[in-house]
């Protein structure tokens, strides 16, 4: 799991490690048991020491791959572009739009070129488990939701928000890409869980980072229940396209 919301205390028998990768050393991971399964929890931004546009996303995904992780749940903070999605909602998006400009988005910077299929940007099997868990915990879940990723660290302007809405965006986050792309290149399942902190710019009021902290606190118990139930119900064997993502991808 790649986390932003402080889920480390979910683990039993936890111990801490750092993993060396070709892209640098990972933040400190917590390794332990969650619902009887071996689980790693990795703080994406090193407990907020690193701004989102400077996160070493390749090191994060490679470190989990080195540990033999086959499925990744990414926890993200997001703001709502959709009036129907209110602050403190927990949303499992089915698609994303990448508007980042400064990030390394592939492990294949040199030959051969690998063009992985993005027809299902998030693992359908993992996403289904999360949606079922959310419905079980709170009685409902959002269906098709598109999350836009911007570079940050600033918030979007009102004009940018209008553009993103016009393109079909429901949420905007500074971290939702490139993790699913990188995971797919390593044939690893990935699904995102977005904690909605506030509505995006263009409405009365001023956006601050305090909303993210408040949203994380207010949704913490519900999020923990959803994650625990989803982990418990994920099939042991993967039955999704992700393990075969590189088949036919070489250009």
- Using only CA atoms, what is the Rg? 17 Å
User: Low-confidence stretches at least 5 residues in length (pLDDT < 50)?
Assistant: none
Which strand order does the major sheet show? 8-12-7-11-10-9
Q: How many helices in DSSP terms?
A: 5
Under CATH, the topology of the domain at 71-244 is which?
Rossmann fold
How far is it from the N-terminal to the C-terminal residue, by CA?
31 Å
Number of strands: 12
Structural class: alpha/beta
- Give the SSE string: EEEEEEHEEEHEHEHEH
Beta-strand content: 15-25%
- Return the CATH class of the domain at 71-244: Alpha Beta
Mean pLDDT across every amino acid position: 91
Main β-sheet description: 6 strands, mixed
CATH architecture of the domain at 71-244: 3-Layer(aba) Sandwich
| Helicity, as a percent range | 25-40%
């Amino acid at each position: 799991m790649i986390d932003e919301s402080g889920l480390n205390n979910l683990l039993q028998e936890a111990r801490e490690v750092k993993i060396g990768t070709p892209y640098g050393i990972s933040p400190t991971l917590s390794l332990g048991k969650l619902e009887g399964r071996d689980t790693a929890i990795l703080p994406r931004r090193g407990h907020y020491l690193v701004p989102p546009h400077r996160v070493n996303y390749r090191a994060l995904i490679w470190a989990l791959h080195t540990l033999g992780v086959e499925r990744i749940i990414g926890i993200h903070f997001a703001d709502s572009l959709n009036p129907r999605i209110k602050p403190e909602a927990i949303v499992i998006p089915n698609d994303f739009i990448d508007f980042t400009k400064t990030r390394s988005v592939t492990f294949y910077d040199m030959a051969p070129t690998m063009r992985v299929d993005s027809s299902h940007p998030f693992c359908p099997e993992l996403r289904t488990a999360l949606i079922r868990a959310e419905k079980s915990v709170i009685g409902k879940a959002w269906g098709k939701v598109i999350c836009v990723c911007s570079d940050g660290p600033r918030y979007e302007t009102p004009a940018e928000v209008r553009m993103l809405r016009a393109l079909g965006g429901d949420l905007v986050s500074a971290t939702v890409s490139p993790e699913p792309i990188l995971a797919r290149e390593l044939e690893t399942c990935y699904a995102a869980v977005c904690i909605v902190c506030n509505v995006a710019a263009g409405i009365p009021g001023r956006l601050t980072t305090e909303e993210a902290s408040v949203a994380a606190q207010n949704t913490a118990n519900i999020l923990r229940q959803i994650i625990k139930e989803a982990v418990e119900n994920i099939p042991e064997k993967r039955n999704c396209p992700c393990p075969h993502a590189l088949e036919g991808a070489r250009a």
